[in-house]
Amino acid sequence: MANEKMSIFFPLKVVSYPQYDCSEDEREDITPREAVAYEDQILAAIAKENRFFENDRGLAEYIHDEALNKKVYSLYPSVEVVDGELWGVMNAGLKEPLSGEEVAALLDYVSGQNSDGYGEGFEQRPIKTPDGEIYVSFWNHENYSLKLEDEMKNKAPDLEHGGPVMGGM
Q1: 164 is a domain residue
Q2: Can you spell out the DSSP letters for 110-133?
Q3: Less packed terminus of the chain by CB within 10 Å, N or C?
C-alpha cells in the first residue's frame, strides 16, 4: 500500500478530425484551454482503458528497475486542469521516499509509457464528445516536458542534491 503520492504532469496533444476520412493535414488542434471542455470525456476514456490492468498497481507493475518497482506501489494516468489548461498527469503511490536518481528514473519510465507504451495505444482510440471525436496523446514531441507537482506550483524540487523527494496533493 502507498504511503505518499507523487504527481507527474505533462502537456497533452488533443486533436479532432472534422470528417471521418480526413487526412493528417486536415486535423484540427485543440488548445489545452479548449481541451478543458472535454475533461470528463477524457477521464471516462482513461477509466475505460485502465480496466485492462491486471492488478491494482496500474503501470507500476511494469517498472523493470527492481528497487524502483518496490518503492512505487502504483502508477495511473489521468488528466487535470491546472491554471485553466488541461494537462496529463501520472499519479504515483509511493511506499517510500524516492532519491533524486529514482525520481529521474521514474520520469524516464513515465516518458517511455507516454510515448511508446500506454500513451501510444490510448492516442489511437477516439473519444466521443458532444462536438465529435477527439484523440488525446500523452506524448507531444513538439512541446514535451515532465513536471513534478512542486514545479507546476512554481516551486523547484531539489533533484540535484539527491535527497528524498515526495509529491502530494
Answers
A1: no
A2: HHHHHHHSHHHHHTTS-EEETTEE
A3: N
